[in-house]
Amino acid sequence: MNLLFSEAFSQYKNEVLSIIENFRNSGTLIGSDARNIVKFVEIDGRKFNFKSFKQHNFINRHVYKFYRKSKARRSFEYANILLENRFHTPNPMAYVEFHDFWGLTSSFYISEQLENCFTLKEVFSDSHFPDREHIIRNYTSLIYDLHENGIEFIDNAPGNFLIKNEKGIYNFYLVDLNRMNFHDEIEISKRLNNFSRLTDDLDIIKIVSQEYAVLSDNTFDFCYKSIFSAMDKRQLKLRLKKNLKFYKYFLK
Protein backbone atom coordinates (compact mmCIF):
# COMPACT_ATOMS: atom_id res chain seq x y z
CA MET A 1 0.00 0.00 0.00
CA ASN A 2 1.18 3.52 -0.85
CA LEU A 3 -0.41 6.57 0.72
CA LEU A 4 0.31 10.22 1.27
CA PHE A 5 -1.68 12.68 3.39
CA SER A 6 -1.65 16.46 3.34
CA GLU A 7 -0.24 17.70 6.61
CA ALA A 8 -3.52 19.48 7.44
CA PHE A 9 -5.44 16.16 7.36
CA SER A 10 -2.89 13.62 8.60
CA GLN A 11 -4.83 13.14 11.85
CA TYR A 12 -7.58 11.38 9.87
CA LYS A 13 -5.39 8.57 8.54
CA ASN A 14 -6.96 5.77 10.58
CA GLU A 15 -10.52 6.92 9.82
CA VAL A 16 -9.78 7.14 6.09
CA LEU A 17 -8.27 3.65 5.92
CA SER A 18 -11.25 2.27 7.82
CA ILE A 19 -13.67 3.93 5.37
CA ILE A 20 -11.77 2.55 2.37
CA GLU A 21 -11.73 -0.93 3.89
CA ASN A 22 -15.54 -0.80 4.07
CA PHE A 23 -16.02 1.45 1.04
CA ARG A 24 -18.90 -0.53 -0.46
CA ASN A 25 -21.07 0.24 2.60
CA SER A 26 -19.66 3.67 3.47
CA GLY A 27 -20.75 7.18 2.58
CA THR A 28 -23.27 8.68 0.19
CA LEU A 29 -22.96 8.06 -3.54
CA ILE A 30 -22.49 11.09 -5.81
CA GLY A 31 -23.59 10.80 -9.44
CA SER A 32 -23.70 7.65 -11.52
CA ASP A 33 -20.35 7.56 -13.33
CA ALA A 34 -19.90 4.06 -14.74
CA ARG A 35 -16.12 4.38 -14.65
CA ASN A 36 -15.43 5.62 -11.13
CA ILE A 37 -17.24 5.62 -7.79
CA VAL A 38 -17.48 8.92 -5.93
CA LYS A 39 -18.91 9.25 -2.42
CA PHE A 40 -18.88 11.79 0.35
CA VAL A 41 -18.25 10.72 3.92
CA GLU A 42 -18.47 12.76 7.13
CA ILE A 43 -15.53 12.64 9.56
CA ASP A 44 -15.60 14.69 12.76
CA GLY A 45 -18.36 16.90 11.36
CA ARG A 46 -16.47 17.60 8.11
CA LYS A 47 -17.41 16.19 4.70
CA PHE A 48 -14.81 14.57 2.49
CA ASN A 49 -15.02 13.37 -1.09
CA PHE A 50 -13.72 9.83 -1.81
CA LYS A 51 -13.06 8.92 -5.46
CA SER A 52 -12.40 5.26 -6.21
CA PHE A 53 -10.95 4.85 -9.69
CA LYS A 54 -12.13 2.13 -12.03
CA GLN A 55 -10.19 -1.13 -11.93
CA HIS A 56 -7.64 -1.29 -14.74
CA ASN A 57 -7.09 -4.14 -17.17
CA PHE A 58 -4.28 -6.63 -16.62
CA ILE A 59 -1.66 -4.68 -18.60
CA ASN A 60 -2.50 -1.26 -17.16
CA ARG A 61 -2.40 -2.61 -13.62
CA HIS A 62 1.27 -3.41 -14.22
CA VAL A 63 1.93 -0.07 -15.93
CA TYR A 64 0.40 1.92 -13.06
CA LYS A 65 2.54 0.14 -10.50
CA PHE A 66 5.92 0.31 -12.18
CA TYR A 67 5.94 2.87 -14.98
CA ARG A 68 3.26 5.50 -14.51
CA LYS A 69 1.73 7.37 -11.60
CA SER A 70 -1.80 6.26 -10.71
CA LYS A 71 -4.76 8.54 -11.40
CA ALA A 72 -5.22 8.98 -7.64
CA ARG A 73 -1.63 10.08 -7.14
CA ARG A 74 -1.73 12.44 -10.12
CA SER A 75 -4.99 13.96 -8.83
CA PHE A 76 -3.37 14.63 -5.45
CA GLU A 77 -0.15 16.05 -6.91
CA TYR A 78 -1.93 18.19 -9.51
CA ALA A 79 -4.28 19.58 -6.87
CA ASN A 80 -1.27 20.79 -4.92
CA ILE A 81 0.27 22.32 -8.06
CA LEU A 82 -2.96 24.23 -8.71
CA LEU A 83 -3.04 25.53 -5.14
CA GLU A 84 0.63 26.53 -5.32
CA ASN A 85 -0.22 28.57 -8.42
CA ARG A 86 -3.20 30.20 -6.65
CA PHE A 87 -5.92 28.35 -8.53
CA HIS A 88 -8.87 26.78 -6.72
CA THR A 89 -9.60 23.10 -6.21
CA PRO A 90 -11.19 21.31 -3.24
CA ASN A 91 -8.48 20.88 -0.61
CA PRO A 92 -6.58 17.63 -1.26
CA MET A 93 -6.56 15.29 1.71
CA ALA A 94 -4.74 12.15 0.52
CA TYR A 95 -4.24 9.48 -2.08
CA VAL A 96 -4.13 5.76 -1.32
CA GLU A 97 -2.97 2.92 -3.59
CA PHE A 98 -3.20 -0.83 -3.14
CA HIS A 99 -0.99 -3.28 -5.03
CA ASP A 100 -0.39 -6.97 -5.41
CA PHE A 101 2.62 -8.74 -6.93
CA TRP A 102 1.58 -7.88 -10.51
CA GLY A 103 0.34 -4.31 -10.20
CA LEU A 104 -2.17 -1.73 -8.97
CA THR A 105 -5.39 -3.25 -7.62
CA SER A 106 -7.25 -0.09 -6.52
CA SER A 107 -6.65 3.59 -5.82
CA PHE A 108 -8.45 6.43 -4.06
CA TYR A 109 -8.20 10.21 -4.14
CA ILE A 110 -9.68 12.01 -1.13
CA SER A 111 -10.42 15.73 -0.94
CA GLU A 112 -12.56 18.08 1.10
CA GLN A 113 -16.18 18.18 -0.06
CA LEU A 114 -17.14 21.55 -1.54
CA GLU A 115 -20.55 22.71 -0.34
CA ASN A 116 -23.01 25.33 -1.66
CA CYS A 117 -21.76 25.35 -5.22
CA PHE A 118 -23.00 24.71 -8.76
CA THR A 119 -21.33 23.45 -11.92
CA LEU A 120 -20.46 25.23 -15.13
CA LYS A 121 -22.60 22.58 -16.84
CA GLU A 122 -25.67 23.99 -15.06
CA VAL A 123 -24.79 27.46 -16.35
CA PHE A 124 -24.43 26.20 -19.91
CA SER A 125 -27.68 24.24 -19.89
CA ASP A 126 -29.86 27.14 -18.69
CA SER A 127 -29.97 30.13 -21.03
CA HIS A 128 -31.61 32.18 -18.22
CA PHE A 129 -29.07 31.33 -15.52
CA PRO A 130 -28.32 34.45 -13.40
CA ASP A 131 -25.12 36.25 -14.49
CA ARG A 132 -24.67 33.62 -17.21
CA GLU A 133 -22.55 35.62 -19.65
CA HIS A 134 -20.47 37.07 -16.82
CA ILE A 135 -19.75 33.55 -15.48
CA ILE A 136 -18.81 32.29 -18.97
CA ARG A 137 -16.40 35.18 -19.42
CA ASN A 138 -14.91 34.53 -15.97
CA TYR A 139 -14.48 30.88 -16.92
CA THR A 140 -12.64 31.92 -20.10
CA SER A 141 -10.40 34.21 -18.09
CA LEU A 142 -9.59 31.30 -15.76
CA ILE A 143 -8.57 29.07 -18.69
CA TYR A 144 -6.42 31.89 -20.09
CA ASP A 145 -4.67 32.26 -16.71
CA LEU A 146 -4.06 28.49 -16.60
CA HIS A 147 -2.54 28.64 -20.07
CA GLU A 148 -0.38 31.61 -19.09
CA ASN A 149 0.95 29.49 -16.22
CA GLY A 150 1.71 26.61 -18.60
CA ILE A 151 -1.15 24.44 -17.30
CA GLU A 152 -3.20 22.46 -19.82
CA PHE A 153 -6.34 21.07 -18.18
CA ILE A 154 -7.13 18.28 -20.62
CA ASP A 155 -10.56 17.41 -19.19
CA ASN A 156 -11.77 20.95 -19.86
CA ALA A 157 -15.47 20.01 -19.78
CA PRO A 158 -18.22 22.02 -18.01
CA GLY A 159 -18.92 19.27 -15.46
CA ASN A 160 -15.39 19.59 -14.11
CA PHE A 161 -15.78 23.13 -12.78
CA LEU A 162 -17.51 23.77 -9.47
CA ILE A 163 -18.50 27.40 -8.97
CA LYS A 164 -19.02 29.08 -5.63
CA ASN A 165 -20.27 32.60 -5.07
CA GLU A 166 -18.00 33.89 -2.32
CA LYS A 167 -18.74 37.45 -1.22
CA GLY A 168 -20.05 38.34 -4.67
CA ILE A 169 -17.14 36.76 -6.55
CA TYR A 170 -17.58 33.60 -8.62
CA ASN A 171 -14.67 31.32 -7.76
CA PHE A 172 -14.07 28.29 -9.98
CA TYR A 173 -12.86 25.03 -8.41
CA LEU A 174 -11.33 22.46 -10.78
CA VAL A 175 -12.12 18.77 -10.24
CA ASP A 176 -11.32 15.53 -12.06
CA LEU A 177 -7.67 16.48 -12.13
CA ASN A 178 -5.80 13.35 -13.19
CA ARG A 179 -5.24 14.50 -16.79
CA MET A 180 -3.17 17.67 -16.96
CA ASN A 181 -0.05 18.67 -18.88
CA PHE A 182 2.50 21.26 -17.84
CA HIS A 183 4.50 23.39 -20.27
CA ASP A 184 7.00 26.23 -20.21
CA GLU A 185 4.77 27.94 -22.75
CA ILE A 186 1.60 26.93 -24.61
CA GLU A 187 1.22 27.97 -28.24
CA ILE A 188 -2.05 29.54 -29.32
CA SER A 189 -3.23 26.57 -31.43
CA LYS A 190 -2.90 24.19 -28.44
CA ARG A 191 -4.62 26.72 -26.19
CA LEU A 192 -7.68 26.97 -28.43
CA ASN A 193 -7.73 23.23 -29.06
CA ASN A 194 -8.10 22.91 -25.27
CA PHE A 195 -11.75 24.06 -25.68
CA SER A 196 -12.70 21.13 -27.95
CA ARG A 197 -14.56 19.28 -25.14
CA LEU A 198 -16.42 22.32 -23.86
CA THR A 199 -19.80 22.45 -25.64
CA ASP A 200 -21.52 22.37 -29.02
CA ASP A 201 -23.54 25.51 -28.17
CA LEU A 202 -22.29 28.08 -30.68
CA ASP A 203 -23.54 31.05 -28.62
CA ILE A 204 -21.30 29.94 -25.75
CA ILE A 205 -18.38 29.37 -28.12
CA LYS A 206 -18.86 32.92 -29.42
CA ILE A 207 -18.64 34.39 -25.90
CA VAL A 208 -15.56 32.27 -25.11
CA SER A 209 -13.95 33.28 -28.41
CA GLN A 210 -14.64 36.99 -27.80
CA GLU A 211 -13.14 36.90 -24.32
CA TYR A 212 -10.11 34.77 -25.22
CA ALA A 213 -9.42 36.98 -28.27
CA VAL A 214 -9.24 40.08 -26.06
CA LEU A 215 -7.09 38.38 -23.42
CA SER A 216 -4.66 36.80 -25.90
CA ASP A 217 -4.52 39.73 -28.35
CA ASN A 218 -5.93 37.69 -31.23
CA THR A 219 -8.94 38.28 -33.47
CA PHE A 220 -12.38 36.92 -32.69
CA ASP A 221 -12.55 35.19 -36.09
CA PHE A 222 -9.27 33.37 -35.50
CA CYS A 223 -10.30 32.15 -32.02
CA TYR A 224 -13.82 31.17 -33.08
CA LYS A 225 -12.72 29.27 -36.19
CA SER A 226 -9.92 27.51 -34.28
CA ILE A 227 -12.21 26.37 -31.45
CA PHE A 228 -14.95 25.33 -33.88
CA SER A 229 -12.43 23.32 -35.94
CA ALA A 230 -11.11 21.59 -32.80
CA MET A 231 -14.67 20.72 -31.74
CA ASP A 232 -15.46 19.39 -35.23
CA LYS A 233 -12.37 17.18 -35.31
CA ARG A 234 -13.17 15.77 -31.88
CA GLN A 235 -16.75 14.97 -32.87
CA LEU A 236 -15.49 13.22 -36.00
CA LYS A 237 -13.12 11.10 -33.94
CA LEU A 238 -15.93 10.19 -31.55
CA ARG A 239 -18.21 9.18 -34.43
CA LEU A 240 -15.48 7.04 -36.00
CA LYS A 241 -14.80 5.38 -32.64
CA LYS A 242 -18.51 4.68 -32.14
CA ASN A 243 -18.83 3.19 -35.63
CA LEU A 244 -15.75 1.04 -35.08
CA LYS A 245 -17.30 -0.38 -31.90
CA PHE A 246 -20.53 -1.05 -33.82
CA TYR A 247 -18.75 -3.02 -36.56
CA LYS A 248 -16.61 -4.91 -34.04
CA TYR A 249 -19.79 -6.04 -32.28
CA PHE A 250 -21.22 -7.59 -35.45
CA LEU A 251 -17.89 -9.10 -36.55
CA LYS A 252 -17.53 -11.14 -33.37
Topology:
Elements: E1 2-5, H1 13-21, E2 28-29, E3 37-43, E4 46-52, H2 58-66, H3 71-84, E5 92-99, E6 104-112, E7 118-119, H4 120-125, H5 132-148, E8 151-153, E9 161-166, E10 169-174, E11 180-182, H6 188-193, H7 202-216, H8 220-250
Antiparallel strand pairs: 1-5, 2-3, 3-4, 4-6, 5-6, 7-9, 8-11, 9-10
Helix pairs in contact: 5-7, 7-8
Describe it:
InterPro entries: Kinase-like_dom_sf. It comes from Epilithonimonas mollis. This is Lipopolysaccharide kinase (Kdo/WaaP) family protein. Keywords: Kinase, Transferase. GO terms for molecular function: kinase activity. The structure is a single chain. The strands form three sheets. The protein has a six-stranded antiparallel β-sheet, with helices on both faces. Strands 7-9-10 form a three-stranded antiparallel β-sheet. α5 crosses α7 (202-216) and α7 crosses α8. The protein has helices spanning 13-21, 58-66, 71-84, 120-125, 132-148, 188-193, 202-216, 220-250, and strands at residues 2-5, 28-29, 37-43, 46-52, 92-99, 104-112, 118-119, 151-153, 161-166, 169-174, 180-182. It has two domains: 2-112, Phosphorylase Kinase, domain 1; 118-235, Transferase(Phosphotransferase), domain 1, CATH 1.10.510. The chain starts with a strand and ends with a helix. The chain is globular. The protein has 252 residues and is of the alpha+beta class.
